[in-house]
Write a structure and sequence with these properties.
Layout (H helix, E strand, L loop, with lengths): L5 E4 L3 H12 L4 E4 L7 H5 L5 E2 L8 E2 H12 L3 E7 H16 L5 E7 L3 H11 L6 E5 L4 H11 L3 E5 L7 H6 L6 H15 L3 E3 L2 H10 L4 E4 L17 H7 L3 E2 L3 H4 L3 H12 L1
Parallel strand pairs: 1-2, 2-5, 5-6, 6-7, 7-8, 8-9, 9-10, 10-11
Antiparallel strand pairs: 3-4
Length: 271
């Protein structure tokens, strides 16, 4: 099983250098970005424009800086996670642009449809050069088993109950189960269907590990403070790890304000 310690939101120079700094102290990272290239504004807006304000580098272009940073951190990151916005804006060419870095790629599709469509979707993943993709466990065990079969070497990760849902939210949608009961049911389906992992809030991780220790837990809903925004089932990074989370998914706690300073606070919270 591959482990990572921190998810970095943003693949610009600041994000890439944060990965390097984290690697120095022995932390593995996964980098997420919704652009079609690694490098942020440097590669998106001025890849060929000379840059003169990088310490110890008299002059380089945005592309040269990005490539140097990627080379520097290759051994410190788990891979690259891309979502629907990335795929719809770049298509297969966007995946090919990322594959040159020889890092695992996760497609966070959260696919949910009828069996025939999910089967075709899963089969198409084999042509993208990715390592992981997400599907909703509500697709049913039968559909997921077929999806696993069609996905070949691409590992499928099941989405359980989104972290912005509460018991009342489920009831409004017609579910009689509580969130805990629903996640328990979905965990059993995911395990039986042969999924590689499960996306869950930190509050369900310990239960999931008891039911299906084979499932790798990808955990959003991680917050440094009591301010949860639209998330309803949260914990701190350290609490989530103590619960048994394999991967922490950090979005707004990292991107709100100064990403580098937020990263420092996250690292300190794990000590």
């Amino acid at each position: 099983m591959i482990d990572t310690d921190v998810l970095v939101i943003g693949a610009g120079p600041a994000g890439l250098f944060s990965v390097h700094q984290l690697g120095i102290i022995g932390l593995k990272c996964e980098v997420v970005d919704n652009l079609d290239k690694i490098g942020g504004q440097c590669i998106e807006l001025y890849p060929d424009k000379p840059i003169y304000d990088i310490p110890a580098i008299p002059e380089c272009t945005g592309e040269e800086l990005t490539n140097k940073l990627i080379e520097q951190i290759k051994n410190d990151i788990f891979g690259i996670k891309v979502g629907l916005q990335y795929i719809t804006s770049t298509g297969i060419d966007g995946i090919k642009a990322l594959s040159k870095f020889n890092l695992p790629i996760m497609y966070d599709a959260k696919a949910f449809d009828i069996k025939n469509t999910i089967s075709a979707f899963s089969k198409s993943l084999t042509n993208l050069g990715i390592s992981y993709a997400t599907v909703h466990i509500l697709n049913s065990e039968e559909t997921l088993k077929e999806a696993v079969k069609q996905a070949g070497n691409v590992k499928l990760i099941g989405v359980s109950v989104l972290t912005n849902f509460s018991d009342d939210d489920l009831k409004k949608l017609g579910f009689s189960n509580t969130v805990k009961e629903q996640v328990e049911t979905l965990t059993k389906i995911a395990s039986s269907a042969g999924l590689y992992g499960i996306v869950c809030s930190p509050r369900e991780v310990k239960m999931i590990k008891k039911i299906a220790p084979n499932l790798v837990c990808f955990t959003p809903g991680v917050r440094l403070t009591s301010e949860t925004h639209d998330q309803k089932r949260t914990m701190t990074p350290k609490e989530a790890i103590v619960q048994g989370a394999d991967y922490l998914i950090l979005g707004r706690p990292l991107t709100s304000g100064n990403p580098r300073e937020n990263m420092r606070k996250i690292i300190q919270s794990l000590e």
